[in-house]
């Protein structure tokens, strides 16, 4: 083989790879997530471990409501390079949409440390903190909740003993926050560092100590909600002389382990095994009384969501809808806006995946009042607009695209600005407004160039060329 032929062979895979990545990005923009996944997967066979492909495929899975797979790809994107900021942001986004707000906050912060001037991490931190305040509460709210919990337990004649803060217990309760706690404790040992001040004038030492104090409060609160059973009580339970035979000695630990096992099965692609496990746990929890386990309905809603996701993986959309609707019903009964919002999101995604775009629109429009920030409005309006585009209702698609673009401008999130402008461009093209279509495609292209995303640039340029040729 000549040198020239060898060069051609080396160029060929690279050209095919770039085309596959660009095609994946374009299909993602069009909302054809399954085809986009196929394109990214094929690209990964040519270049295993490519971080851009993992992030792109993770976004597709996220759009389809397959959160575990989205998380798996996000993790893969930062497996070798923990400073890959796009992977960190994608993982944070997946965790946020899974309702793991505290874990999401950790990764938003890690990304911001690497890219301190990037808007998306600042906005991510803001929305995660708001979500945590709504679900757990500010430090002063947590203290109040702890007191209320103690009073309720005393009224029920339950003896509560404060569990010593063992290292193992703290690690279990804080989970990913445990690493950050140790990191902050290490910073306090640096005498020169803690003397410095932050940009807003606050002493760094005060900020660190305040954060550590907050983590202590959260640890104590979660420990009260999920206390470890004393050894003596464990022995009594093993003899069957204590709590109900249907109730594990440590229900919180049982549920945590069960949910982790279910997530692991679904993430690994073992939908049948995950479904079986989730159904077994569901049956077990259904046998508990609400007096024994006050959070029963909330846990049942979570399990119905897991079962719904498993049925999606197995292609049984009717069964998936059945369980996601049950999860929605329980979330509404418990008056949990976050869980209600997530359930509506999942139901809408199932309908969209089934091609039932009108039903998806109806469900997602119910979610609009529950949206708290412009970033969430951006993607929700975009999804509704995309469904209208699929239905051929191009004016409605354009209007929602414009609303999505306006919300994206408020957040200064360039990627969603690109998505929204492409949607408007596509809608205007269908309406025969060629000049307006070109204008929106060009705006999206300029944003993509500023973002330096070559795959998206190529995809938009290709679409723009096709419009201009007409």
Automatic annotation (TrEMBL):
Entry keywords, A to Z: Cell projection, Cytoplasm, Cytoskeleton, Repeat, TPR repeat
GO cellular component assignments: axoneme
InterPro entries tied to this protein: ODAD4, TPR-like_helical_dom_sf, TPR_rpt
Region (Disordered) residue spans: 229-249
Subcellular localization, as worded in the UniProt entry: Cytoplasm, Cytoskeleton, Cilium axoneme
Start-end of each TPR repeat: 17-50, 341-374
Superkingdom as given in the UniProt entry: Eukaryota
Main location class: cytoplasm
Name by which UniProt lists this protein: Outer dynein arm-docking complex subunit 4
Protein source organism: Takifugu flavidus
Upper taxonomic lineage: Eukaryota, Metazoa, Chordata, Craniata, Vertebrata
